[in-house]
Amino acid sequence: MKLSCALIASCVIASAKAFSLSGLPQRQGSSYGITSGSSVCASCKKSSTTTTSLQMSDFGSAMPAKPEQTLEEKLSESATTYIATITGQLGEGVDPPEALDKLRKARDEGADAKTLAARTYELMIEQGMTYDQDPDTGLLTLTEWDIKDNLETPEVKKEFAFLYKYGMNLISKGLLDTDDAKEIIKKGLIERTGKTPEDFDKWLGY
Predict the structure, then answer these.
(1) Burial category of 72 from C-beta neighbours within 10 Å (exposed 0-12, middle 13-18, buried 19 and up)
(2) How far is 78 from 15, CA to CA, in rounded Å?
(3) Which of 31, 61, 173, 200 could form a disulfide with 195 if both were Cys (CB 3.0 to 4.6 A apart)?
């Protein structure tokens, strides 16, 4: 089980961030002003140029603002990116995680924000626990690590800690209910160690 959570997070964190909207690009220079013609006096040229520039500078603010995405739309977009990333990283002949189809179904059915967050979290855990990622190619293959025999291996412990803390962050942001998080963590993380929930917390230093 090679560490892959840092790469996972880059595909998912968008759900917790606000998307900024950039305005229309403003054309620079004086090409919009009327500045030529021998019959036009200097003061008229200045007035004409200024008036035209002011009109053009107001053009951007007159355009309708791009609608801001809802939380569900942001999470759905994030899910689409994550699904595409995982699918593209699977090594030849490697089956996709079961949680990937669950996330795709939730997205396609227009699930609410908490459901999308839960399905995404489940996929993160399944990827981290059952796949290795080649550091050179980025390809995913099924892990050959025996988790229970390697609980004190730093890489293993660090991966568990990352995924556990990620779930806690989802709760704190209101993206995951506590009971749902407990169930996901119990099945996805704790049961893989063979520890009780209490011993699991102590193992991670909580």
Answers:
(1) middle
(2) 6
(3) 200
